[in-house]
Design goal:
The structure is a single chain. The chain is of the alpha+beta class and 265 residues long. Helices cover 23% and strands 25% of the residues. The protein has helices at 19-29, 49-53, 123-141, 165-168, 176-189, 194-198, 215-218, and strands spanning 4-11, 33-37, 58-62, 70-74, 78-82, 94-99, 104-109, 147-152, 191-193, 225-230, 237-242, 258-263. Strands 3-4-2-1-12-11 form a six-stranded mixed beta sheet. A six-stranded mixed beta sheet has the order 5-6-7-8-10-9. Helix 3 runs parallel beside helix 5 (176-189). The chain binds one DNA strand of 15 nucleotides through loops.
Length: 265
DNA sequence: ATGGTAGGTCTCCTA
């Protein structure tokens, strides 16, 4: 048995409203590191005591009032941090932490992009593509080693990442231009999508709309949440899971938490 | 073709 590291990513849709759910998840699954998106809170108003009490003594975060916001809570020491304002949107959408064990973790919340997949009529879609271009550019000039990238990337790139590939191809999150831009980001950083490495085909979802009644039975989901690793880590053994059960909790986030356990780090 | 739900800066914006 070698050392291992368990990492979780979860779009929590307000950390102040759902603090108890995050703590419940941590007690149940004991990841070493949890990366949260859509905290919707300034950093100084993120509740931290409950996390500390469970052994998550290290936090790095980028926040703003009301919208966006990303945070990393860790049992493992975080010795450095930085945040990048991709595409100069002045949004809190990225935080990175260097762990003492040599790993770097990037936590992203990519813009959702609005409803209309048209850069001329929808500023939010233009900003989403600009954000992806900026990510690509940054990874072009910053080679990643012992790196993990997680987050709500708001793109479901694979046919089996959506409930209906044909219908969703005109819907923001699964359009060809977004999928192409995301693949450029992946190529720039030599990233490996661990969920699709383990499961090349077969439906995988991490998000179900609040608007869909009986989300569980209809199961019209999308895989918007991702865990990637840099190519130097491709030899690591790992296991992934999507904790769909949390989507069925009372007053849930619309996203399920996703996990990867790395063995022999 | 439309509307459906949820959270926060709360009758309007974002997802």
């Amino acid at each position: 048995m070698g050392a291992f590291m368990k990492i979780c990513s979860w779009n929590i849709n307000s950390i102040r409203l759902r603090e108890a759910q995050v703590l419940r998840l941590l007690k149940q699954h004991c990841p070493d590191v949890i990366c949260l998106q859509e905290c919707k809170s300034p950093v100084e108003k993120i509740p931290i005591q409950g996390f500390r009490d469970l052994g998550y003594e290290h936090m790095v975060a980028s926040g703003q009032k009301g919208y966006n916001g990303v945070a990393i809570f860790s049992k493992l020491p975080i010795i450095d941090e930085f945040s990048i304002d991709f595409a100069d949107l002045k949004h809190a959408r990225h935080i990175a932490g260097h762990l003492e064990n040599g790993f770097i973790i990037h936590n992203f919340y990519v813009p959702a992009g609005g409803d209309e997949p048209n850069i001329d009529t929808n500023l939010k879609f233009a900003q989403k593509l600009a954000f992806l271009d900026a990510m690509k550019k940054w990874f072009d000039s910053n080679e990643q080693k012992r790196a993990i990238l997680v987050g709500d990337l708001n793109i479901a790139p694979h046919e089996d990442d959506v409930w209906d590939h044909k219908k969703l191809s005109k819907i923001v999150s699964h359009t060809p231009i977004e999928i192409e831009k995301l693949s450029e980001v992946m190529r720039a950083g030599n990233w490996i999508d661990v969920f699709r490495k383990a499961t090349p085909n077969g439906k995988l979802y991490s998000w179900w709309s609040y608007r869909a009644k009986n989300w569980h039975l209809a199961d019209k989901g999308r895989r918007l949440d991702h865990i990637w690793v840099s190519s130097d880590l491709s030899g690591l053994k790992f296991e992934n899971s999507i904790f769909r059960e949390a989507r069925g909790w009372d007053r849930p986030s619309d996203h399920a938490p996703i996990f990867t356990v790395f063995d022999e780090i």
